[in-house]
Amino acid sequence: MPLRPELYLGDCREELRKIPSDSIDLIVTSPPYADQRQTTYGGVSVDGYVEWFLPISEELLRVLKPTGTFILNIKEKVVEGERSTYVMELILEMRKQGWLWTEEFIWHKKNCVPGKWPNRFRDAWERLLQFNKNKKFHMYQDAVKVPIGNWAKDRLKNLSETDKIRDNAKNGSGFGKNVSNWLGKETVYPTNVIHIATECNNKNHSAAFPRELPEWFIKLFTRENDTVLDPFMGSGTTIDVANRMNRNSIGIEILPSYYEEVERQFASLQQSEVSLNESSSEHESVELTRRYALR
Ligand SMILES: C[S@@+](CC[C@H](N)C(=O)[O-])C[C@H]1O[C@@H](n2cnc3c(N)ncnc32)[C@H](O)[C@@H]1O
Question: Which residue spans of the chain are classified as CATH 3.40.50.150?
Fold first, then answer.
């Protein structure tokens, strides 16, 4: 049964100090973006963003295990007709801090906000920056495999002789493929573009993650009983998903209203587990908890 999440109310710059070094397997978080949502939970100016974030990323570097991964969801907005560069500046400064910038995933928002501008199109994606402490980190790629797709049925029906050997690209790129390697495969690795719709009805938070987003990274970078941290917890999506996937979870939130809401959710979850334990045999209650976790 997953442990009850560890929740902290306060500024993560301070609260992170309570977490032991090298203890976290995965950090998945979305901090306030620069100059956005100032009316709801305060905003950090574009100019001061890197300076504000660096002490936090330094603490994250300390608490992450050497084999762990940090996924940072962030997107720069347009200021006076130009994309701001603070995310790029942040990446450069984090590298100086000791982080490796290992990958960038794109979250394609299948249902992006409608709108029309004279000089740009609708914003349909956000960055998910991956940082690590080492080049070797835990990654369970098989956990996120996707169905191979209908194309394979036709393409693999009649293989040519070239399809059966490694066919090197004619342009000298060094790339090549052996089409017959796909024979008999039902699933393949996904790309680094993740197609997920935003969830407008997700709780009382204006910027809550769709549940599938943390779920995908938790599958990819952790196993059961590993520990997941979200230092900007908001409505607690990451923590809730991690908990239901039998991972330990730690959340930090600065606003008491969000923090209390997450605390309430877990208190009632724990209460229902206690009732289940009282009314069922141990085996039955484990089964029910598992079913609950899979919902
Ligand atoms: C973009 S939201 C995160 C939403 C979250 N991913 C969810 O699914 O609900 C950022 C959250 O960070 C909180 N926050 C802002 N500054 C913080 C700080 N210094 N320490 C901890 N939390 C902070 C805000 O109150 C807000 O709830």
Answer: 6-141+191-263
Cβ neighbours for 201, distance < 8 A, ≥ 6 positions apart: none
Residue 245, pLDDT score: 97
Atom of ligand 1 nearest to the CA of 205: 9
Q: How many Å lie between the centroid of ligand 1 and the Cα of residue 230?
A: 9
DSSP label of 273 = H
pLDDT per residue as tens digits for the range 245-273: 999 999 999 999 999 999 999 988 777 76
Instruction: Tell me which CATH code domain 6-141+191-263 carries.
Output: 3.40.50.150
Residue 253 C-alpha to ligand 1 middle, in angstroms?
A: 6
Residue of 82 and 273 predicted with greater confidence: 82
Token pair 């239901």 is at which residue? 244
Q: Which atom of ligand 1 lies nearest, measured to the CA of 234? A: 27
Rounded to whole angstroms, the Cα distance separating 228 from 105 reads 19
Which atom belonging to ligand 1 lies closest to the Cα atom of 33?
A: 1
